[in-house]
Amino acid sequence: MPELPETETIARDLHAMVVGRVIVQVAVTRPDVLREVTADRLCTTLEGLTIARVWRRAKLIVLDLTSAAEPWHLVVQPRFTGGLLVDDGRMPASELAYSCVAMRLDDDRTLHYRDVRRLGTVALMSAARFSEYSCALGPEPLDQSFDVVAFSGCVRSSQQPIKAVLMDQRRLAGVGNIYANEALWRAGIDPSREASSLTQGELQHLHGALREVLAASIAARGTSFRDYRDARGERGTFVEQLAAYGRGGEPCTRCGRRLVVTHAVDGRSTVFCPGCQY
What we know:
This protein has helices spanning 4-18, 39-46, 93-96, 127-135, 148-155, 162-166, 177-187, 200-219, and strands spanning 23-28, 34-35, 50-57, 60-66, 72-77, 82-87, 99-105, 110-115, 121-126, 260-262, 270-272. The protein is of the alpha+beta class. The chain has 2 domains: 4-135, MutM-like, N-terminal (N-terminal domain of MutM-like DNA repair proteins, Alpha-Beta Barrel); 148-242, Helicase, Ruva Protein, domain 3, CATH 1.10.8. It has a 5-stranded mixed sheet, sandwiched between helices. Strands 1-7-8-6 form a 4-stranded antiparallel sheet, with helices on one face. Strand 4 and strand 5 form a beta hairpin. It starts with a helix and ends in a 6-residue tail after the last strand.
């Protein structure tokens, strides 16, 4: 966490809130979150840059920054407890206490990267470095070009469990534990099934289920259990629509059998229905 829907929500919010703003001052209070850049270099490089675009790649939030010299990409990977919040001066002290990087903008607001457990990262990349980094990631499941044929090419060659394949960022970008569980439940597929064993019909069903659950979660502004907040500090509501993840031991809403929780598939919490997932 956050996964594709959560980072997409944050990126869309930030794009509407900070595009066109100039970064006038940067303070790094927790340098251990930084990657590929020192605190001093981050501050000197970012100051004076304009935020041209905020968007998502996989589970990353990317800020495109422009200057007269060269473009830069600020690449944020929130992981479990990280997030980007815009402070107009009213942010609670409880949130400010976890600020790791603070970027003051030219309208006197401050963009914070806050992270309770500091497991997320903030990296500064040149255009060439970011292109290299992005090319190592799989395709985006919500792209128009990502049809059933493309999906089949991502998963059918693997002998790994289909849940593990869905979460492999080199094969498919942005899907994590929550939405792999949910998509497989919707498609009626056992998470431990070998990916190469899926029929074309099952792949088509799973492709549709995956895209549907990701789109539905984006519409609900993501899933909040404990730490995830959007760029305004608000919670996502997709938790109310979860059919599998977090519901181990409860009745399946489709067939009534008790949902099973296991860590045997990929070491993560896997929830599935033994009655209607084959």
